[in-house]
Specification:
It is a single chain. This protein is 51% helix and 18% strand. It has helices at 2-27, 31-52, 55-84, 172-181, 183-198, and strands at 100-104, 109-111, 119-125, 127-130, 135-138, 141-143, 159-161, 165-171. The chain has 205 residues and is α+β, with helices and mostly antiparallel strands. Strand 4 (127-130) and strand 5 (135-138) form a beta hairpin. 24% of the residues are buried.
C-alpha cells in the first residue's frame, strides 16, 4: 500500500511539474525556450496520464510533442541562418517572389531628394549615383530603405542612373511581409541600416 501511495504521489508531482512548465511556456518571451518548456511538459504529462489511464490527455500531448520538437529544431535552424546572414551582400532571390522589375537609361532620375519613399530597390545591373553626396553604387546593392524608417518617409538623396540599369523593387507592405517571413533578409536589413546610419557621408536614401 505504501509503494502504491508513493507511486501515486510521484505521478501527482509529475502532473504539477507539467502544469508549471506549461505556465512557464505561456510567459516565455523566446520561441526556443517556450517550445522547450512545452515539450518537457508534454513528456511529463504523457507519463503521468498513461499511468492513471487518462487517455485523452495522453493523446493530446502525444500530438503536441512532435510538433514542439519540430518547432525547436526549426527555430534553431533560423538562428544558424541569422549567424550566417551576409553583412555586405543581399540575395536577389529574397526579393524575386515579391518584386517588380524595371529599367533605367543613363541619365534618368529614379527619385529626387524630398520625394515620398514608397519603394525599396535592389540594383541587379548598372550603376546609380546619389547626387548630393557623390556616391555611386553598383550591381548587388540594396537601397532606398532609409525612407521607410524616417518620420516623414521622404528621400534623403537624388538617385540618377549613370548607366543602363535593371532594378527590382518592393513597396512598404511587401517589405514588411518579407521582413517577417525571411529572418535572413530582416537581419541583413537591420545591419544595412545600422551601417548607413553610422556612416552618414556614404548613406544611400
Amino acid at each position: 500500500m505504501s509503494a502504491w501511495t508513493n507511486f501515486r504521489d510521484l505521478l501527482q508531482y509529475l502532473a504539477w511539474i507539467a502544469m508549471a512548465l506549461t505556465l512557464c511556456s505561456t510567459f516565455s518571451r523566446t520561441i526556443i525556450r517556450l517550445r522547450l518548456f512545452a515539450a518537457t511538459s508534454n513528456i511529463l504529462a504523457i507519463i503521468s496520464s498513461t499511468a492513471i489511464g487518462f487517455w485523452p490527455n495522453v493523446i493530446q500531448n502525444a500530438v503536441q510533442l512532435p510538433m514542439n520538437i519540430y518547432r525547436i529544431r526549426e527555430a534553431r535552424r533560423q538562428v544558424e541562418k541569422l549567424r550566417a546572414a551576409p553583412v555586405t551582400g543581399v540575395h536577389s532571390g529574397w526579393l524575386h517572389p515579391y518584386a517588380r522589375e524595371s529599367t533605367l537609361f543613363a541619365g534618368q532620375v529614379l527619385f529626387r531628394k524630398g520625394d515620398l519613399g514608397d519603394r525599396l530597390y535592389y540594383l541587379e545591373a548598372g550603376s546609380i549615383l546619389f547626387d548630393e553626396i557623390n556616391v555611386e553604387i553598383h550591381a548587388g546593392t540594396l537601397f532606398g530603405e532609409i525612407a521607410f524608417f524616417t518620420r516623414d518617409g521622404r528621400r534623403t538623396q537624388t538617385a540618377i542612373a549613370t548607366s543602363e540599369c535593371r532594378l527590382l523593387s518592393i513597396d512598404g507592405d511587401q517589405l514588411k511581409q518579407l521582413y517577417f517571413q525571411n529572418p535572413e533578409f530582416g537581419w541583413y536589413l537591420i545591419q544595412l541600416i545600422a551601417q548607413r546610419l553610422t556612416a552618414p557621408n556614404h548613406r544611400a536614401p
